Amino acid sequence: MTEPPIRRGLARNTANYGDRDFALYLRRSFAKSMGYSQAMLDRPVVGIVDTGSDYNNCHRTVPDLVEAVKRGVLAAGGLPLAFPTVSLCEPSLFPTSMHYRNLAALDTEAMLKAQPMDAAVLIGGCDKTVPAQLMGAASADVPAVQLVTGPMLATPFQGERLSACTDCRRYWAAYRAGKVSEDRIHEIEGRLATTAGTCGVMGTASTMACLAETLGMVPLGHGSIPAVHADRLRAAEEAGALAVRLIGNSVRPSQVITPHAIENALRVLLALGGSTNALIHLTAIAGRVGVRVDLRRLNELSDSTPVLVDLKPTGEGYMEDFHAAGGMPALLWELRDLLHHDPIDVTGVTLGERLAEPAFVDRRYIRARSEPVSPVGGLVALFGSLAPRGAILKRSAATQSLFEKEARAVVFDGLEDLANRIDDPGLDVTADDILVLKNAGPLTPAGMPEAGYLPIPSSLARAGVKDMVRMSDCRMSGTAFGTIVLHITPEAAGGGPLGLVESGDRIRLSVAHRSLDLLVPAEDLARRRAAWSPPQKPQRGWDRLVADQVLQADEGCDLAMLRAGG
Ligand code: FES
Ligand code: MG
């Protein structure tokens, strides 16, 4: 049998049951039922991943973006075909959006591969949607450009500015401490997020947009354009035109997401003081192209990468300030001697070429190397008997006086236990203790939620305690702050030592030594381990697939079968 000619446009990926031409004939006749002219159907196809959803506030502008992308595709000579995939919005999903990131990635990968398209535009914004699309695109390896929805604007309100969701946490903590009234907290509720777009601080969505820009999957300068700015629509139009230009230029996501590009993204994550979640997502994206993110390498990079961006939750500004201050072109320029210059973006242009000239910079939000926000990076990995495969601390959002600490553990067995007891006036806890939450990792039904920001017990909050050492095998919102050790690996439900910790045990945290140790004699631990049994797996569906397949945090919490090489 002779090989079919290389097909493009609607002819791509036609089924072959012995008469390929008939399959294409059928496809065309059904496409014609949608009213396209033959001339349109002869064009190359740009698939547009549409993650608009009434459940997803961060994606409220997606219908407008799809229209603008289509305009760009049509003007450049392509046929734009938008299609829906799973849309993930942080506050809308139970048990947590993280539980569904891999589902969105799988959906994206499958549809990019199954449907006829020569290139794709990936429209996404919220925390999990951006990494899911990058994971899916890396695996499908279709030429693709990503268009993020962009951040919301902060709301001027009675002399301050508010935005989701660092200010949500700040006000809620004050409310728990009895410093903000019931009426006031309800009034604030309607002022925290008042425009379309993703959270307005350097949370996970913003961090991922900046990393996608660093990787070269989002055009440089486009990641931080506010959602409601006219430039966002122009960026969409440009993304559509760019996708058409990608056709025939053979750059694939797997050539963009390389070891050097990943290391650049890690540097940028550190310089942003970015979200801890981004580390898991970047690890998962890297895993799709066979690259391993090493947490010990993260520590080396962290020691030589200053935090330069002064945004909440660690600093002062909001994403609109970062964008106006020069955004990623300015930050990458500032970091240029620390970055690899060879990685190419989706158009095949190297980072070195993209950084040919200095960019405008406003030093209020993007500092000079000589005057950093912090001389070292925002994140560190900790290792030790409590975290043999690592744990993460966002030191840029933590209290330095708590960095070296040996103290008593106050342990919660899971989320329900935490909810039941944290505010119990009889809880035996002092500000000097370490709060430990276990059984909230990726293997649990909780699905590794952003529960690592354990509330300060209300008795202590009311007494003025603002921070305590807290640790768990789950995650923390990118918009949160505190001395919080996350992603303890292996997790409790996976047989990690965290599962053996009991209230009253001593734990030693040393940020200086990058260590986290459980100070319990080996024989006691052996006895506890003999009595331990793994949790029961869910019986069916997605939950069962996750329980069978999900990897630990140090491997990006991807499904094992979805990594490069399975
Ligand atoms: Fe979507 Fe924050 S909830 S970006
Ligand atoms: Mg978030």
From TrEMBL:
Dihydroxy-acid/6-phosphogluconate dehydratase N-terminal domain mapped to chain residues: 43-353
EC number: 4.2.1.9
Protein name as it appears in the record: Dihydroxy-acid dehydratase
UniProt GO molecular function: dihydroxy-acid dehydratase activity; iron-sulfur cluster binding; metal ion binding
Protein species of origin: Rhodopila globiformis
Annotated family: Belongs to the IlvD/Edd family.
Residue intervals of the Dihydroxy-acid/6-phosphogluconate dehydratase C-terminal domain: 366-557
Keywords: Iron, Iron-sulfur, Lyase, Metal-binding
One Pfam family hit: ILVD_EDD_N
Keyword Transport in annotation: no
InterPro entries attached to this UniProt entry: Dihydro-acid_dehy_C, DiOHA_6PGluconate_deHydtase_CS, ILV_EDD_C, ILV_EDD_N, IlvD/EDD_N, Sugar_Degrad_Dehydratases
